[in-house]
């Protein structure tokens, strides 16, 4: 009989090893899946993981996309990871991302066509506040009424999507847009445009913010007492209370940080790569960031790498759809597998497998 | 011998470092309610686990109805007619009563038949219960009924009940007693484990008393006073306290009419507790577990806040201050539960040092943790209190209970508290380490700190305390100087036997 036995302490080797093993298993099982779908598995894997960066034919276009896609994923995942460490499950980053985009864009458009240098910082603050405020709804409901933040934050995503559809075809609609839904295009308004900072790299202010968030989160979680309190709350709530940590403050803090970062990500996206607030500009970054956070072991450096990897599968997946005719659902399945295998291999961080003789009955 | 159901002969079970049961012998008659009485750690649980087949004895034999009885596992014991209601229920919240009952059966009947049988049994024994209800909507008393009915469906000959009334309201206790008396009248034997003296006196026919794993007496409870029972349970072997030369200073802690409702409806509310504690004084608080010890510690440590004016520390009202704020001027505490409360299991010893010593020991500056200093703090505690561990980077849960206890107690003592509130300071620690922890507490008091020790070990309290008080159902007796206290008075203070004795005389 096989039996799982709890380790006296979490294994350091497995903590580092399990993401790599998960990637390997995903490639293996994904390859089998692609083979069943009639594609050459080696070609499919190469198209997803190799071509976006190294192919002469595509890399000119796809390489900058790596940072464009990884930026918001990392920024959101960093915020989520802080809450996850405390056992606070914000599943609604997508909604906070949308509200950040709406508030950021709205704050800027109120001053159109000003060319003040303060426009973009103002939009950034408005975006962060929008995401923060949206996250405060589950936070306050949880602390005051004891509701479940998973459900509330998730359902608020659909509310946010409805608001997005409404403002894109109403309040924020481009007055010069001949009645088409969607806001003004920020690419045509320099003061508010989140432009590419270094040509050909995909680097924009959102990517810079993501890198800063990685460093700040690393310092917070490993050196600062608030980060310690957050970890303590997640690992042993009673011990946290014994230490003098106020659980209400931790909920407000964690949901606040993750909401503000998601809001900023939404604002950077709307004013940069997306260019406008349109009905369906949100691409699911808020949900994918959950995978990124776990794939990165809730560790800031890990999240940086996981964000880049996830961005790669996005771009590579699109490429595979285009070049090999693989269905989009197969790519999503491929990404889902990554999280699945990660959680599965994760068991071995805290447990080890033991062979036991079946006991005589 | 015909009316003996279960006969226990010389049962012995030793665990590394402790003999849980030492040559225990007694008989349970047919149709008898037999009490097993003893303090926490006296060996009651180990004994019933052997009867129920969860633990195999090292030595000794049992006979059930004349036949040799040595169940290798609970299902064999159940087949032989032994059923057990545990103190902690094993029910699935999301399932209905009937589904939960079916899960515990070897060959569950069809759902409809089972529901009908549950209804029959519950009516027959006066335990109202609807088989279709979800367990999540049941009260603790109703959950217990599910467990009892699960047992009764097997037509047991011996029903073991482990502390059944600890979760019940007085009304539910009455209902339960009616049921048990009915079972008894039908010839079912009951082994009833408790440390509530008055219950045992009103319910049980015979009592076997255990202390430190040994049977120390048996009696007919209804003919024995609560005081005598308490004395048997506690023993009168402890050393007479030495008169200590104590210089009492000014009042450090003043608790006035402290009231605190039970947390989440479980546990014990604190009722009108008042006392004072002076510099250099050690106050020992005794009492049977579950009478408000945890609650008192949390009210003093600041984990739970009380109304203004109830807790005054060094002349300041700290009733509305949290644990972190109280710690800064030197009100430190060490709770009973080491893993999960006093320490975070998956965090290292260094991190667990920061947990309470962060601000007071200067490990945190401007919000940033000085890990080098924190590590030295942890190493200091490890060295001074002889904690056996490879180093401060080890996770708390990897330490043995006794070693972790040394660490969490040492962590507070090293911080030089003005007042130390400590629950069960030497629980699970070997004798040498226990002695050194007690000595450390005495040294601390000698240095001018006030100490409040909550413990279930009377010997320990008598050894180190200047004053003694007892907690009973959330009430604290008047603290009295330990010198001059005799066994009889302690027996009366414990377990609230004082009130019961007068009631007994009055009736």
UniProtKB/TrEMBL annotation, chain A:
User: Could you list the residue ranges that cross the membrane?
Assistant: 20-39, 66-84, 96-112, 118-141, 150-172, 203-221, 250-268, 329-348
Q: What membrane topology was assigned to this protein in its record? A: Multi-pass membrane protein
Source organism's superkingdom?
Bacteria
Cellular location(s): Cell membrane
Could you tell me which Pfam families the record lists for this protein? BPD_transp_2 (PF02653)
Q: Does the keyword Transmembrane helix apply?
A: yes
Recite the UniProt keywords alphabetically.
Cell membrane, Membrane, Transmembrane, Transmembrane helix
Question: Tell me, what is one Gene Ontology molecular-function annotation carried by this entry?
Answer: transmembrane transporter activity
Provide a GO CC annotation, any one. Answer: plasma membrane
Protein name (Swiss-Prot/TrEMBL): Branched-chain amino acid transport system / permease component
Instruction: Tell me the organism.
Output: Pelagimonas varians
**Taxonomy of the source species:** Bacteria, Pseudomonadati, Pseudomonadota, Alphaproteobacteria, Rhodobacterales
From TrEMBL, chain B:
PROSITE patterns (alphabetical) = ABC_TRANSPORTER_1, ABC_TRANSPORTER_2
Note whether Membrane occurs among the keywords: yes
- Molecular function GO terms recorded: ATP binding; ATP hydrolysis activity
Provide this UniProt record's keywords sorted from A to Z.
ATP-binding, Cell membrane, Hydrolase, Membrane, Nucleotide-binding, Repeat, Sugar transport, Translocase, Transport
Q: Name one GO cellular component term.
A: plasma membrane
InterPro entries listed in its UniProt record: AAA+_ATPase, ABC_carbohydrate_import_ATPase, ABC_transporter-like_ATP-bd, ABC_transporter-like_CS, P-loop_NTPase
- Asked if the record carries the keyword DNA-binding, the reply is no
Q: Where does the record place the ABC transporter domain? A: 6-237, 253-498
EC number annotated for this UniProt entry: 3.6.3.17
Localization per Swiss-Prot or TrEMBL:
Cell membrane
Membrane-topology annotation of the record:
Peripheral membrane protein
Q: What class of enzyme is it?
A: hydrolase
SUPFAM superfamilies to which the protein is assigned, alphabetical: P-loop containing nucleoside triphosphate hydrolases
Taxonomic superkingdom: Bacteria
Q: Name one Pfam family in it.
A: ABC_tran
The protein in question is named: Galactose/methyl galactoside import ATP-binding protein MglA
Source organism per UniProt: Pelagimonas varians
Gene from which the chain derives: mglA_4
